[in-house]
Amino acid sequence: MYKAIVNDDTYISILEDRHANELYHLIDSSRESIRQWLQFPDLTHKVEDTRAFISRSLKRFANNDGYWAGIWYKEQIAGSIGFLGIDWEAGRTEIGYWLGSPFEGKGLMTSACRTFVAHAFHDLRLRKVEIGAAVGNIRSRAIPERLGFTQEGIIRNYERLHDQYLDRVIYGLTQQEWLDQQAMS
């Protein structure tokens, strides 16, 4: 299955059933930091929940409609990144991601997103990639900003999380903008 080398210490690979235990334990050990911005830790109570998530992701992969991959750092699962769905007619996708708390601040997610963006534009031949984050999630927002995405807007009251409504900022990057960046570097 899909595997991409990010650097000497890091790679990305499609999540498979055999990763369920390791992924669940990372979620469980990082539950408080992840749930601050995402709902899924509150819905993940046992390994079988993680296994069901992986199964749904593999079905989406088989249907050519996005997928989730694990991010491994020094042979340990550090987090996950995914194409949340692919609009083939528009040539567009959105990237979602999260890291376990022991792996934050190492540049892993920026590197993983860079790899996913390159895959979207070069291999999948998409025309646009989007990333959304809660307005208050400064660390998550820094990733598309570092990668040259443009802030396209804010969706007010986008989601309800822990009895509060969060606004969501949307970033976008076109294939041509990415190619121009690559030519300049």
TrEMBL record:
It comes from the Bacteria. Residues 21-167 form the N-acetyltransferase domain. InterPro entries: Acyl_CoA_acyltransferase, GNAT_dom, Ribosomal_N-acetyltransferase. Pfam families: Acetyltransf_3. This is GNAT family N-acetyltransferase.
